[in-house]
Amino acid sequence: MTSKAYLTGFMMSLSLTVTAFILVYGATSVGGSPLSQGWLIAVIASLAVCQLVVQGMYFLHLSSKGKPGRSLQIMLFVLVMAAIVVGGSIWVMHNLNYRMMPGEQKVTETIQDKENIHHR
Amino acid sequence: MSRQKYESPTTNAVGLGFWVYLMTDLMLFATLFATYGVLRGNIAGGPAGHDIFSLKLVFAETIILLVSSLTAGLALLSAHAGRKTRMLQLLVITGVLGALFLGLEINEFRVLLADGHSWQNSAFLSSYFTLVGTHGLHIFAGLIWLIATVWYALKRPLSPRFMQRLTMFSLFWHFLDLVWVCIFSIVYLMGVLA
User: How far apart are CA B59 and CA B61, in angstroms?
Assistant: First the structure.
């Protein structure tokens, strides 16, 4: 590891963060965005994943080569567990909401839209 | 700076144990993210994310934490190169930036509470405060660890034992920046979009 590697990782992380911020700030505060909301969320998620990989490589020194490979293996296993916990929870609870309260959230949203309620 | 043999954190039992601790911490944050993901729509007639988040402030926090992550890594390199004064300078900068981050976050919470958006008002706010607050607590613990590390380095020469402690601290600090990247993207950026 050299300071050059740290600086490379830092510059890449910085540009990824700034890009994500500009995209969202432009879409919400400055004006519209050429991307639809769904695409924007997909882009933000991809930028975040890129940054996690960059920081993992340059800051945490994760690599598949040599002995450090062990830390990467452990982390990949934990990431799979985390994905099951997060994905599974959201999936199950979304289904629960869908089955238990048909349309209720929609009704609430419609009422709020009609009465133009803004909580600020 | 000279290229030195990089000691992987998992080459000995202590390093491996610390890495496993970090992974359990990752699971802790995963459960908190899951909770937030499930509850973020349950605003109970109160404010949603886009009503209360200040994107500029959070962006500043993100940059501050990223720079402190860099200085923590450079401090470790300086220590490996035997440049103790430079290492101490970089560690102090890391600490100051970390404290600045924590100050901004506490202020953000204070403003939310002053506006009446307490964690008691909705499941969304409860999960938000728990997730972001847990990260803040980790930063606080990291700052105490950092002060202890600087204190130790001031009184003793750089030893292999100290190098291992510093390596673990820098791993912890980088890890917290990784978690913050997820919080910044999922809670704040996507919260403002929704």
Answer: 5
